[in-house]
């Protein structure tokens, strides 16, 4: 699905609103999700972390949720998230803050935007259907919109800190292409046994021999925490392998009988709702 990001204008969208997210099927084909440094502690135990190289050459910290075939293994066929922690990238959808114009006085201005491709935008929101207006009759932001702006503003701050750290790792030549070797016994689709293209990991040998001055700078940029977390998390690729086996088993069984209950994902990771922080509009 190609995003259609448009700003929420207070005048043209005065009577408009949105329908709350009811599932995460929109992320079903996202095998890597951008994350911030503040999320590492909640994610490192359950999935691999990596660095995705963008078209402009910049690296971005991501959580790896699938293999080369592009399937997000943490989202089941009903759109339920199978992990304990829901990344901010998914919590915020379909809202985002986009840079508006050039920086002034070293400050970047942002505007609140909405992904119209989500199908959740409503020009005539119906409160009886659970749909929510962006603004009230006086033109003031509804509470849910205020929450979204606050949440996204916090993400922008954390993303800036994260990007500074990742840039520091890249500048120190500590990133190398990641091609993990996995035990794929029981997996039937070979193309899915490699991680998505363009992912990098920490070069552990280079990290061990780094100069003291560079090490101090990495510490100041909070980059060492990301480096060690990424190295620790790589073994969690086995979780992806196990999830892939389960998805394939469910698909095979569905060819013969009614779809199986996927509660085994919850048993594997715990109750996904127990640790999810989210706005009322995402319930």
UniProtKB/TrEMBL annotation:
* InterPro entries on file: SapC
Q: What is this protein called?
A: SapC family protein
Its lineage reads:
Bacteria, Pseudomonadati, Pseudomonadota, Betaproteobacteria, Burkholderiales
**Top-level taxon of the source organism:** Bacteria
Question: What is the scientific name of the source organism?
Answer: Undibacterium flavidum
């Amino acid at each position: 699905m190609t995003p259609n990001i448009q700003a929420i204008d207070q005048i043209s969208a005065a009577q408009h609103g949105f329908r709350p997210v009811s599932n995460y099927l929109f992320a079903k084909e996202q095998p890597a999700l951008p994350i911030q440094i503040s999320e590492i502690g909640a994610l490192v135990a359950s999935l691999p972390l990596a660095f995705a190289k963008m078209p402009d050459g910049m690296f971005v910290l991501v959580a790896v949720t699938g293999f080369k075939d592009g399937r997000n293994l943490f989202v089941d066929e009903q759109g339920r998230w199978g992990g304990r922690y829901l990344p901010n990238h998914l919590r915020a959808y379909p809202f985002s803050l986009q840079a508006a114009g050039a920086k002034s006085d070293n400050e970047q201005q942002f505007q609140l935007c909405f992904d119209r491709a989500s199908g959740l935008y409503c020009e005539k929101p119906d409160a009886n259907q659970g749909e929510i207006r962006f603004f009230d009759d006086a033109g003031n932001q509804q509470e849910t919109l205020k929450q979204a702006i606050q949440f996204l503003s916090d993400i922008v701050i954390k993303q800036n800190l994260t990007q500074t750290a990742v840039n520091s790792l890249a500048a120190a030549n500590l990133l190398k292409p990641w091609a993990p070797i996995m035990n794929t016994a029981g997996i039937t689709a070979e193309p899915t046994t490699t991680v998505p293209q363009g992912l990098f990991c920490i070069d552990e040998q280079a990290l061990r021999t780094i100069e003291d001055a560079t090490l101090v700078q990495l510490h100041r940029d909070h980059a060492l925490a990301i480096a060690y977390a990424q190295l620790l998390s790589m073994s969690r690729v086995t979780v992806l392998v196990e999830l892939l086996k389960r998805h394939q088993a469910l698909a095979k069984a569905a060819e013969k009988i009614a779809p199986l209950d996927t509660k085994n994902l919850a048993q594997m990771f715990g109750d996904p709702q127990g640790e999810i922080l989210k706005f009322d509009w995402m319930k």
